[in-house]
């Protein structure tokens, strides 16, 4: 081909659609390559941990130790007279509680915190998880709160009594709505009420798609109770998120061990995970938890195991 012909071809303008197609293909290929490389890196990070273990079961046990420490998780919030006030208000029937929490294998040894004032710090572990979710549930239900009186729980007042967190509470001396936001167990200023609402809006649980500002289930109401207590004690926000992540972990153990595996694959140790991020809609809502579950199905010990909503 002569130089004259080549020059003539180059002189012709390239159609706009062709330019756009070239650019789009370039972006697409770049995205595919980046995704492939990121997935490869996730697998390499996980393999590094796998090399130090004998089998997948041992790997899962290591993660469980991090997420669910055998000695439990201790907060810096003391019981004070909260338990006594819950009994005195009637939201907790001591008689009904004693039928459920009978010994130290199911939280029975924590009944003492409902009977007398104590400076002991609140602790959650595998044995008392049920006791803690019920007791904090009662606290969230009875304490006067903007979340309960001004939030989504009151969007349709006729339905307020029908949520799992209200209609499902049967451990009081009367029906749940007799206690709903009825007593100042934890005094809060308006600024503190606003902070409670803010934090609650950032905290999700794997049993549904709602945040704690819409506490329509027992875990949501329990989280609300703890947030109010922690805010009243002046705890920093980041510590409150860490505490709530620990509570959620013992209430939904399978979900958060899976989450620990997910972050491990990203090269992040569970202790270094941002608690606020872990509790966000992206990770701790029902859809977020399902996404995490699907991403760790390549780990044999997690296959065909679902999380539980019961505490």
Can you tell me about this structure?
- Strands 1-2 form a two-stranded antiparallel ribbon.
- Residues 17-24, 26-43 and 304-311 have low confidence and may be disordered.
- It is built from 16 helices and two strands.
- It has a domain at 13-52.
- By secondary structure, it is mainly alpha-helical.
- Helix 3 (56-67) packs across helix 13 (253-265), helix 7 crosses helix 11 and helix 11 runs antiparallel to helix 12.
Features:
16 helices, 5% strand, 311 residues, 2 strands, mainly alpha
Regarding quaternary structure, what we see is: single chain
Number of helices: 16
How do the SSEs run, as a string of H and E? HHHEHHHEHHHHHHHHHH
Into which percentage range does the β-strand content fall?
Answer: under 5%
Radius of gyration: 26 Å
The main β sheet shows up as: 2 strands, antiparallel
* Overall geometry: globular
Residue share in helix: 40-55%
- Structural category is mainly alpha
**End-to-end gap:** 80 Å
